[in-house]
Amino acid sequence: MISRRAAVVGLGAALVGCDRPSRGVAPRSTSSGPSASAPTPEAAPSASDVPPAPPEIWTRELTFTEADGGPQRCVLVAPRVPEGRRLPLLVALHGLGEARKGLEGGAWGWVRDYWLDKAMRRVAAPPLVAQDFQGFVRPRQLERHNARLASAPYGGLVVACLYTPDLLSPRSLDNARAFGRFVVEHALPRLGREPEVDLTRVGIDGVSLGGRLSLLVGLAHPREFRAVGALQAALQLSEARELARRTARAREQNPGLALRVVTSDRDFYKDEIGAYHAALERAGLAHEHEVLPGPHDYPWNRGPGALEMLLFHDRALRGG
Fold first, then answer.
1. SS3 state of residue 27
2. pLDDT digit string (tens) for the chain, length 320 residues
3. Strand partners of residue 73
4. Residue closest to 110 by CA, chosen among 53, 66, 164
5. In this structure, are residues 278 and 240 in contact, taking their beta carbons and an 8 Å threshold?
6. Closest by alpha carbon to 250, among 217, 276, 278, 206?
7. How far is CA 79 from the centre of its chain?
8. pTM reported for the whole predicted model
9. Beta bridge partners of 288
10. Is 207 helix (H, G, I), strand (E, B) or coil?
């Protein structure tokens, strides 16, 4: 068993139906013989070997009127922490399937459809197991996550799940400007008034449609964010070079901006995300790039999507 600290404060998906059609396109046990002597009782586990209890998760809904840049809706999801303690903030954007459900359905998408609250409980009470990832995890990847959690336990985030508008038709790198202004001019100041939120440590991430918009918003406003992530982002091959140029400009404004792009081996957008990754490498722009197991579908987002998002931003926003 991996040794962990007993006291951990922290939290305890995700898709998008399909944003485009598929391309044709997924205790140690022992036995012994009879013994004349009675078995020796096992020693009680030490405190360091007992996983922490999953935390209680709360949700809170915020409504934005036209006067606040809306109409818009946001659902906050976070662990209960001692009064006065503030957590880093992560803005999470959902996919196209939830965009079509309207403001309320979309804002609740990360909880109701992607099971974010379950992921929060699990990352706060390691070790993680393959079932937490809906089976979409490689043994070495699972070992790496648990080793990191053993050495640096999950600290916890407040996740702001904003309604994400359908900005895929027509697909343009410039049609998210109004949404980006809403995020930085209205949503972040409002979220900063919540007693649990530390507005000096903010990240943005999303899946599919949401992954596309998290890149467009995060790279356009790099001073507002410490970390930008994208899960199975709905990109096009023709956009890779321009996105790399925008990444370079963002790094000029914020050299410490962390960037992570994640795809999967059966993701509709694997090639497009790979092209963006290659363009970043050619430009010498530091970033993380992962190709994980699994499809572009709800089970993936309820497992790797939610878990990887939480673990990356907890690490990035805490400087780990």
1. coil
2. 333 333 333 333 333 344 443 333 333 333 333 333 333 333 444 445 556 778 899 999 999 999 999 999 999 999 999 999 999 999 999 999 999 999 999 999 999 999 999 999 999 999 999 999 999 999 999 999 999 999 999 999 999 999 999 999 888 999 999 999 999 999 999 999 999 999 999 999 999 999 999 999 999 999 999 999 999 999 999 999 999 999 999 999 999 999 999 999 999 999 999 999 999 999 999 999 999 999 999 999 999 999 999 999 999 999 86
3. 63
4. 164
5. yes
6. 217
7. 15
8. 0.85
9. 260
10. strand
Structural domains in the chain, CATH included, are 51-317 (3.40.50.1820)
- The answer to whether the bond into 34 is cis (omega within 30° of 0) is no
Pairing of strands 72-79, 87-93: unpaired
Residues whose CB is less than 8 angstroms from the CB of residue 84 and which lie 6 or more positions away in sequence, other chains included: none
The strands making up 57-64's β-sheet, listed across from edge to edge, are 57-64, 72-79, 158-162, 87-93, 197-206, 227-231, 258-266, 288-295
Distances (CA, A) of 199 to 25, 41, 83, 188: 41, 51, 17, 8
Name the amino acid, one letter, at 258: A
Residues comprising the chain, all counted: 320
Closest CA to 98 of 2, 208, 222: 208
Strands 158-162 and 227-231: unpaired
**CA 76/CA 12 separation, integer angstroms:** 15
Structure tokens belonging to residue 100? 């079509």
